[in-house]
Amino acid sequence: MNNYERTCDMVNAYVKEHGRKTEMGRGEFIEWVHEKYENISVEKNNLYPTDISFNLYNNGLKDFPGPCLCLMYVFENDKFRLVGTDYRPTCNVIQYKGRRNEQVVGKWNNGIFSFLPTPIPTEK
Fold first, then answer.
1. Looking at the domain assignment, is residue 96 inside a domain?
2. Looking at residue 112, what is its pLDDT?
3. Which of 35, 56, 58, 57 has its CA nearest to residue 47?
4. Is 100 a member of any domain?
């Protein structure tokens, strides 16, 4: 089992017991994982929460690590929400969130991602 799989197992167990409302900052999340798995730490820089997050704010999306998506990045407060691997978002993927040139570049539909053929500027 790799670090991402171990981490997702932890998140799934937590979500099963506590629901999907918990949010953690990057460092807080990695420290939480490190408490159980000493080989995963901020210092070793061997876990990137964005690598296991449903990405909502990026245009550089190419490949996803499959069943190991278990976090949702929350732009408004720069935290990660623990949602578990069975979470199936339906929402837009936005590039340049919060900027004048903000645009929708893709969509999650019941957990399946697809790019839009042409980005759509958001109304400010």
1. no
2. 85
3. 35
4. no
Model's pTM, two decimal places? 0.82
Q: How far apart are CA 93 and CA 61, in angstroms?
A: 10
- CB 84 within 8 Å of CB 11: yes
Block means of pLDDT (10 residues each) for the chain, length 124 residues?
88 97 92 89 74 73 63 85 93 87 90 88 80
Length of the chain: 124
Contact at 8 Å (CB) between 106 and 61? yes
Residue type, 6: R
How far apart (Å, rounded) are the C-alpha atoms in residues 22 and 18? 8
Instruction: With H, G, I as helix, E, B as strand and everything else as coil, classify residue 122.
Output: coil
Residue 95 lies in a domain: no
Which pair of structure tokens corresponds to residue 18? 């506590």
